[in-house]
Amino acid sequence: MLVEKPARSFVMGIRMFDAERYLLNKSLVQIEMEELDLRGVICPYNFVKTKLKLDTLEVGSQLVVLLDDGEPIQNVPKSIMNEGHQVLTQEKVDAFYRIVIQKEDV
Q: How many Å apart are CA 28 and CA 106, to the nearest integer?
């Protein structure tokens, strides 16, 4: 699934710039994102499944992981960062959490 990042504009002097497009030769940034729904999966299987999925992705790709409250959201992001990847966002959505991980070259 390709997600088109929304452009954020700002004023620099009197000229209006689209920050994303300006920095990337005036083209929209497209980031490949896959989703892994691990709601209902217990520890440590949720981390193992996340790690295995990351192994299939290209460096720089992003993975959306859905996790339950409690041990999963406490442990999986820490373990992923210990592996050398980045956790870009972590947000609560209803009764679960949505985290976005960026695969790094580890």
A: 27
Q: Report the DSSP beta bridge partners of residue 92.
A: 97
Q: What residue type is assigned to position 44 of the chain?
A: P
Q: Which of 43, 57, 64, 87 is the catalytic position?
A: 43
Q: Which domain holds residue 14?
A: 2-102
Place of tokens 């980031």: 31
Residue range 36-92, pLDDT digits in tens: 999 999 999 999 999 999 999 999 999 999 999 999 999 999 999 999 999 999 999
Output the six-digit token pair for 72.
């999963």
Rounded Cα gap, residues 83 and 53, in angstroms: 13
Our count of domains for the chain comes to 1
> What CATH number is associated with residue 54?
3.30.110.40
**Alpha helices by DSSP H, the chain:** 19-23, 45-55, 71-82
88, containing H or E segment: strand 86-93
Catalytic residue check, 87: no
